Amino acid sequence: MPPFDHEPPSPRRRYGAGALVATIATLFVIGVVGGGSLGWATGPRPDRAPSSASEIPTPLPQPSSVAPAPTTPDNTSTPEPTPSPTPTTLTEEEREQQALLQLREQAEEDIDSFPFDGRWAVQLSSKYVGSTDPFQTPASGGTKFKASDIWAEYTDLRERLEPRYTVSLIYRGNKLGANTGRKFWYVFVTDDFGSKEAGQAFCDEAFSGLPKAARDNQCWPRQLPG
Asked: Fewest beta carbons within 10 Å, which of 96, 133, 178, 214?
């Protein structure tokens, strides 16, 4: 046989049954370990959100922070009306005492400014409690003047003539300058008219609606004591 001109093929390595078993066992262990690691890595994590709505817990109801509205009392009922005080009715004696007090207070106020300086003024009235006047009728009725009648005449004259003229009330004796004897409640217009004639002209104009006799009884010029 001629000699070979090249190397003969290397003999094929043969594996025995033991090597095959060891290889299969190694692959099994790798698969088990690798599969467990892969499953742990791809499995659900504890901190991951639930994957479905059924897994979301229902929140607990929170207490309301809005305070309840206060209860308003029912004020629709109509209050009962307050009864008006009953006016006090004065007796006739009390009315006269009240009028007398008003006369005195007014006279005490006016006497301080009364002009005892000899001027020509005008006298409108001179009465005392119980006096009569043929040309005048007392406001209270009857024929005799009471304190309330004298006070009513004074206030009426003052309302008619002031503030254009000065009306004064004094309580003096029948000589006017004296404060003795029977005393009268005098009503004067104390403006200085300058003369008797000027005073008379005032009376004729101020009381032109009265007859002459009644007018002369109601108003006449008078020279005041100086």
From this structure: 178
Q: How far apart are CA 136 and CA 217, in angstroms?
A: 9
Examine residue 48 and state whether it is found in any structural domain, yes or no.
Answer: no
Q: Which alpha helices (DSSP H) does the chain contain, by range?
A: 17-42, 92-110, 147-161, 196-206, 212-218
Q: Tell me how far apart the alpha carbons of residues 226 and 109 are, in angstroms, rounded to a whole number.
A: 20
Count of domains observed in the chain: 1
Residue-number span of the structural domain to which 134 is assigned: 98-223
75-127 confidence digits (pLDDT tens)? 566 667 776 766 678 899 999 999 999 999 999 999 999 999 999 999 999 99
In a domain, 191, yes or no: yes
Rg from Cα positions in the chain: 66
Mean pLDDT score, 4-18: 46
The model carries a pTM of 0.61
